[in-house]
Design a protein that fits this description.
seven-stranded antiparallel beta sheet; alpha+beta; 3 helices
Length: 113
């Protein structure tokens, strides 16, 4: 579960997410695009990952569109069955230019404890 303070209220907002481990880093990918949690995370730059009673604070850094292709490819390899409908027919085996085409529509954040 992702917990991020609301942009206006400052109250904690929670949403379920899939945390991607890829090449030694953890990432959050927004399959539905520029949602409220994305806007809140951009504004706050930090949040918490919750698992049961465990709370892990983190700092977030947004990834540039040009660097997203391998991250989105791996995300789709793992969770296409769950989120594939939000990626305009692009899958883990799609060409790099297809992944580059959809990259601006799917914010990606590297998270560090």
């Amino acid at each position: 579960m992702l917990e991020v303070p609301g942009r206006r209220s400052g109250k904690p907002r929670r949403t379920p997410v899939n945390v991607l481990w890829f090449q030694g880093n953890r990432y959050l990918v927004a399959p539905r695009g520029r949602t409220q949690w994305v806007r809140n995370l951009r504004a706050a730059g930090e949040g918490n990952l919750l698992l049961g009673r465990r709370r892990e604070p983190f700092q977030a850094e947004e990834i540039a569109d040009a660097e997203k292709e391998p991250i989105i490819r791996e995300y789709l390899r793992r969770w296409k069955w769950e989120v594939g409908q939000f990626f305009a027919g692009v899958g883990p085996d799609s060409a790099a230019d297809e992944l580059a085409r959809i990259a601006p529509d799917h914010p990606v954040f590297r998270i560090d404890a």
